[in-house]
Amino acid sequence: MATALSVNLNKIALIRNSREGNYPDVVEHAKVCIASGAEGITVHPRPDQRHIRPDDVRQLAKLLAPMKALEFNIEGNPFAPRRGNYPGLLVLAEETRPDQCTLVPDSDNQLTSDHGFDLTRSAEQLAPMITRLQAQGIRVSLFMDPIPEQIRLAKEVGADRIELYTGPYAAAWGTQELETIYRQHFLAAELATELGLGVNAGHDLNLINLPKYASVPGLLEVSIGHALTVDAIALGLANAVQAYKNILTEAVS
């Protein structure tokens, strides 16, 4: 079975937010991604609303609710407080009921997510949040580095899946460190699967480095936004989605 592609729409929203109005329309772009073969849509609302806004999440939830075969994935920092009309990640997730909520330890001063959870510090706080989301029928994934001890703690804290942070893998492309980092991800995915955790991955994956990463065992889903949006400038959005889908399909052939 091929790894599922979830398209992250944050960069579409970022372009929209650079002007007044609703152009480009996030929901309409989601429809194109779905029609082109994406199995899911990912958004990462932040309290500063630099890209995806709470109303985007609500509108996408309405779009995807009847589409039972598709996954709606909301990412975010569960510790970030309510600010303005941003109600907080857990409240927004409970309102919109995504299929999956990916918890990420990011902050406003980060340009983008750049590390996984250290569960030796945050497990006690995360455990009731995970339980709260699961009580609403929402699958919970934790954004994690490929560290065996941390992955074991992810299982202990009650997560359903992990999302392996692939930024260092992408940064190592073309260097001598690539094989070492790839091997870390390979072994981390094997361990997670043995523990009964589902395995997702994301961050800086692109048309060049995805074919190798797609061979990581047990990989259920990749979330790709920045590179896919950039590729869409040259290829068109539908063709860009199909190009990523082709890689994931060929990985199991």
What keywords describe this structure?
8 strands; 253 residues; eight-stranded parallel barrel; 11 helices; single chain; alpha/beta; TIM Barrel
How do you describe this structure in short?
This protein is α/β, with parallel strands linked by helices and 253 residues long.
Describe the protein's architecture and organization.
The chain is α/β, with parallel strands linked by helices and 253 residues long. The chain has a single domain, classed as TIM Barrel (Alpha-Beta Barrel). It contains eleven helices and eight strands. Strands 1-2-3-4-5-6-7-8 form an eight-stranded parallel barrel, surrounded by seven helices. α5 runs parallel beside α6, α6 runs parallel beside α8 and α10 packs across α11. The protein is globular.
Give the SSE map.
Elements lengths: L3 E5 L1 H8 L8 H10 L4 E4 L10 H11 L6 E6 L12 H8 L3 E4 L15 H16 L4 E6 L3 H10 L3 E5 L1 H5 L6 H18 L2 E5 L7 H4 L5 E6 L1 H10 L1 H14 L3
Parallel strand pairs: 1-2, 1-8, 2-3, 3-4, 4-5, 5-6, 6-7, 7-8
